[in-house]
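Today's session is about reading a structure prediction critically. Students often jump straight to the picture, but the first step is always the sequence itself: look for stretches that repeat, for charged clusters, for runs of hydrophobic residues. Only then move on to the predicted structure, which in these notes is written as discrete structure tokens rather than atom positions. Here is the chain we will use throughout the hour.
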Amino acid sequence: MAARPPQGESSAPDVIEFGIPAVDARLDAAGVEFPATSEEIVRALDDTAIPTDASGGTLDLEAALDRLSRDRFESESELLDRLHPIFEEHRRSSSGGFVGRLRALLPF
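Below is the predicted structure for this chain, in token form.
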């Protein structure tokens, strides 16, 4: 006979976010209001190291913002759209090919 699942537990499982979803979550948690400048965004966040993969890779948000051609963002979606290619480039360049992807999947 199988055990019954816990009843009335309302806590959702922890989810680890990477890249743009992680930036989005940090901006929401910090209460960043738009329009905002890069400096205001960085100042609002406690930690600017954004996770980019399951193996612990990160990209510093301040460094990513420095690579953009603009310093002021009218909306959060504009900021995230502009950051997306930078995070994708970082993810591709740090993946390490097949072995790197395999290591990211294994728990050791």
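Discussion point for the tutorial: Residues 19-94 form one domain.
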